[in-house]
């Protein structure tokens, strides 16, 4: 199942299609010399790493987004599961959280009972995430963090996941097509892919870059590059040829 949640665009919520199922044959589809990691992005996130868990800081919007994205992921995953565990609804599920940052989304998914692997190419992010999860012994057993890129994970392990999450990440990567291919390659057959991102519209330029970066200073200048924003249509055009079932697009 793919739950494709597009946030930050214009217009109200819209459910265009049903959830989508993907088959993912395990094979490398990228050259080992290519990378999705952009060194400028790495520098930006290194500089901010100490602020991940400040709910009023630069990552405040990501903290707030948990109110939407955690139930969205939970509810869509529960639709794929026959067994229900009260209190730990995602128990038994293995999730890959790509670009986990400081673990803002990884931790609530772990608290819902899932085994979560959080990966991020920025060492400083993973150190913060490790440190923060150590405050909760329950999470310590359920979450593993690794400093690596998605393509490294595809190359180095034969691990596969019930769900892959890339939340607010695709607008920071190089080689988006390769990134999505790698997502498929780590999914179990019939697994779920959740992507959230900022839409590519004039409104997202005005709010996400002009207002948030230059006027209000909510996020540092240079955090986003409008050219790298991804429209739902662009994402659909990359996702669709690979899908064998349904796509759910949710836009706010
Ligand atoms: C806006 S943050 C989102 C963090 C987290 N997913 C959340 O929503 O709380 C983007 C994250 O993507 C990571 N990132 C950047 N390029 C990446 C890439 N090519 N592959 C995986 N993660 C990447 C950054 O280091 C950063 O932690």
UniProtKB/TrEMBL annotation:
<dbReference type="InterPro" id="IPR010233">
    <property type="entry name" value="UbiG_MeTrfase"/>
</dbReference>
<feature type="binding site">
    <location>
        <position position="171"/>
    </location>
    <ligand>
        <name>Mg(2+)</name>
    </ligand>
</feature>
<keyword id="KW-0460">Magnesium</keyword>
<comment type="similarity">
    <text>Belongs to the class I-like SAM-binding methyltransferase superfamily. UbiG/COQ3 family.</text>
</comment>
<dbReference type="InterPro" id="IPR013216">
    <property type="entry name" value="Methyltransf_11"/>
</dbReference>
<feature type="binding site">
    <location>
        <position position="168"/>
    </location>
    <ligand>
        <name>Mg(2+)</name>
    </ligand>
</feature>
<keyword id="KW-0831">Ubiquinone biosynthesis</keyword>
<dbReference type="Pfam" id="PF08241">
    <property type="entry name" value="Methyltransf_11"/>
</dbReference>
<dbReference type="InterPro" id="IPR029063">
    <property type="entry name" value="SAM-dependent_MTases_sf"/>
</dbReference>
<feature type="binding site">
    <location>
        <position position="172"/>
    </location>
    <ligand>
        <name>Mg(2+)</name>
    </ligand>
</feature>
<feature type="binding site">
    <location>
        <position position="120"/>
    </location>
    <ligand>
        <name>S-adenosyl-L-methionine</name>
    </ligand>
</feature>
<feature type="binding site">
    <location>
        <position position="167"/>
    </location>
    <ligand>
        <name>S-adenosyl-L-methionine</name>
    </ligand>
</feature>
<keyword id="KW-0479">Metal-binding</keyword>
<feature type="binding site">
    <location>
        <position position="99"/>
    </location>
    <ligand>
        <name>S-adenosyl-L-methionine</name>
    </ligand>
</feature>
<comment type="pathway">
    <text>Cofactor biosynthesis; ubiquinone biosynthesis.</text>
</comment>
<feature type="binding site">
    <location>
        <position position="69"/>
    </location>
    <ligand>
        <name>S-adenosyl-L-methionine</name>
    </ligand>
</feature>
<keyword id="KW-0949">S-adenosyl-L-methionine</keyword>
<protein>
    <recommendedName>
        <fullName>Ubiquinone biosynthesis O-methyltransferase, mitochondrial</fullName>
        <ecNumber>2.1.1.64</ecNumber>
        <ecNumber>2.1.1.-</ecNumber>
        <ecNumber>2.1.1.114</ecNumber>
    </recommendedName>
</protein>
<keyword id="KW-0489">Methyltransferase</keyword>
<comment type="function">
    <text>O-methyltransferase required for two non-consecutive steps during ubiquinone biosynthesis. Catalyzes the 2 O-methylation of 3,4-dihydroxy-5-(all-trans-decaprenyl)benzoic acid into 4-hydroxy-3-methoxy-5-(all-trans-decaprenyl)benzoic acid. Also catalyzes the last step of ubiquinone biosynthesis by mediating methylation of 3-demethylubiquinone into ubiquinone. Also able to mediate the methylation of 3-demethylubiquinol-10 into ubiquinol-10.</text>
</comment>
<keyword id="KW-0830">Ubiquinone</keyword>
<keyword id="KW-0999">Mitochondrion inner membrane</keyword>
<keyword id="KW-0472">Membrane</keyword>
<comment type="subunit">
    <text>Component of a multi-subunit COQ enzyme complex, composed of at least COQ3, COQ4, COQ5, COQ6, COQ7 and COQ9.</text>
</comment>
<feature type="domain" description="Methyltransferase type 11">
    <location>
        <begin position="96"/>
        <end position="195"/>
    </location>
</feature>
<keyword id="KW-0496">Mitochondrion</keyword>
<keyword id="KW-0808">Transferase</keyword>
